[in-house]
Amino acid sequence: MKKITAIAHPNIALIKYWGKRDTALNLPATHSLSITLNQLETRTSVRFTDQLAADRVCLNDSPASAAFSQRVSRCLDTFRSLSGSSKFATVNTVNNFPTAAGLASSASGFAALLTAANASLVRPLDKIQLAILARQASGSAGRSLFDGFVIQHRGERDDGGDSVAEPLYSRDHWPLEVVIAITSENEKKTGSTDGMLHTAATAPYWQSWIDQSATDIQAATSAIRRRDFAALAAVSEASCLAMHAVMQSARPGLLYWNGTTVELIHRIRELRTSGLSVFFTIDAGPQLKAVCLPGDAEAVETDLAAVPGVIRTLRCQLGAGARVVSTVDEQ
Ligand code: PMV
């Protein structure tokens, strides 16, 4: 029996994904564009064995919830059917950062799981097939398969065959840095899937959010190609605020921020006015991510760490894609 361990890093979207065009296949309603982070990581080991009657899933060294275990088993079912085997697996997955708090632990988690399970196949799937499975497991997970700047295509096909993540530029193209200001370590109350469905069903601004997103993805791609920081800052903050605006316009409105998140938004804008190259982005949680040119990351981190309500800060460079780190034969 082989125990295969893979590592994947979270990614953060600069152009956001919020909404599904097909819930069953988990097809996104918008394109999205992300950067993969270093330093934060999910490490997942998978070991198929004939000694289990069901998959055994541990998250951060404790038995995982039934809901999470089911999502893991659904992914493993695909590999069981591909390999023609009915063996269940022991899965251990550990995050070195807060889980389910808006730091994309599901993206790195499923990217690591699929990468490890894929390596157990005699004929592993290619990256496109893996990106489709990752997107089915979690809409942002395909993006964590790749390094640097990554686009997740919305796709047009009904079967989702063209709704895949694709690497756009490697991290060497533009080695941006990210400072994460943690403002709460609690798990969020509304998961992203529920939040997206509620927003699509009730938000009056829904269609303008979808329409604007297509323009934003073009502007961001062009800014990254030209390494134009001011242009990337403008379109990324706009996409982030538009995503939060559309969810806040749902009925009842969804609000993932706390007071510190708002203070940090103001602080980032002051820092930019004072000459630092920095912009913010925020996902479905209260943490703020400050994207900076490398020369400014230290000053940004020192400043944000001093904002009241910030529990701690993390600093990341752009990271590598998901990969297998060990394969051990075990009895
Ligand atoms: O992959 P999910 O279902 O957790 O959705 C992620 C949604 C956001 O993080 C809020 C935005 C994004 O594009 O990552």
Can you describe this structure?
The model has no long low-confidence stretch (mean pLDDT 95). Strand 7 (56-59) and strand 8 form a beta hairpin. The strands form four sheets. Strands 8-7-9-6-1-16 form a six-stranded mixed beta sheet. The protein is 36% helix and 24% strand. It is built from eight helices and 16 strands. It has 331 residues and is α+β, with helices and mostly antiparallel strands. The chain has helices at residues 66-83, 105-118, 127-137, 192-202, 206-226, 229-248, 259-273, 297-305; strands at residues 2-8, 11-15, 20-22, 27-28, 32-36, 42-49, 56-59, 62-63, 88-95, 149-152, 165-169, 177-182, 278-281, 288-292, 312-317, 323-329. Helix 2 crosses helix 3 and helix 5 runs antiparallel to helix 6 (229-248). It folds into two domains: 2-171, Ribosomal Protein S5, domain 2; 177-317, Alpha-Beta Plaits (2-Layer Sandwich). Bound molecules: (3R)-3-hydroxy-3-methyl-5-(phosphonooxy)pentanoic acid. The site of (3R)-3-hydroxy-3-methyl-5-(phosphonooxy)pentanoic acid has 14 residues, from helix 2 and helix 4.
